[in-house]
Amino acid sequence: MQRRTRWTALLLTAAVTAGGAAACGDPLRPYPQFTINPRAVNVARGATVPVKIVLAGPNKSESWTVESGNPAVATVVQTETGATVSGASTGSTRLYVVTRTEGFGTVRDSATINVAP
């Protein structure tokens, strides 16, 4: 009798595990990875600098946007290959790259922007 109970427990465990795996459906894609080059942008007030931005890996087809942490210090405009950073006033801020992905929600990455006089 004990042997039969053990086999029943093993079969039940296998069935539950298989059902759980089937219920998972589409696996999550890896966390989005951005390449931002350069990671530290130095720009003079009134000048512009290009920044290359690439969303890599399985998420590379996701749409993304850019924004400035402080538009009074630097403005950021999205381009086909990344962004253009313009120095507005002396100081430091961040360039943010933002994407929304299934399973992770809103994901941000950033680079430092230093504006010199």
From TrEMBL:
Signal sequence bounds: 1-23
Keywords from the UniProt entry: Signal
Keyword Signal: yes
Superkingdom of source: Bacteria
Designated name of the protein: BIG2 domain-containing protein
Organism (species): Longimicrobium terrae
Classification lineage: Bacteria, Pseudomonadati, Gemmatimonadota, Longimicrobiia, Longimicrobiales
